[in-house]
Amino acid sequence: MNHRDKLLQNFGRRVRDARLARGLTQEQLAALAGFDRTYVSLVERGKRNLSLLNIYQLASSLGNQPEDLVREL
Taking the CB of residue 37, how many other CB atoms lie within 10 A of it? Predict the structure, then answer.
């Protein structure tokens, strides 16, 4: 596995952990963030390379700051 893939998987794990800590389903997070559920699934599995705006939108929907999701990746 290359560095890029590890980075995306680690980020996805943080999103999933934050979602579960808030007691949200993927569907609920997607609705809050204005995304499709399949997009959230792809992010959590490390299959999507997000834009800065989408990182911000996900973090806001989770009640976090964007840096909380990317710190020390």
Answer: 14
Cα distance between residue 51 and residue 47, in whole Å: 13
Whichever domain contains 15, its CATH number is 1.10.260.40
**H or E element, residue 49:** none
Give pLDDT, residue 20.
98
In contact, 61 and 29? CB cutoff 8 Å? yes
Q: How is residue 10 annotated by DSSP? A: H
How many domains in the chain? 1
pTM (two decimals): 0.94
Total length of the chain? 73
Determine the distance from the C-alpha atom of residue 42 to the mean position of all C-alpha atoms in its chain, rounded to a whole number.
9
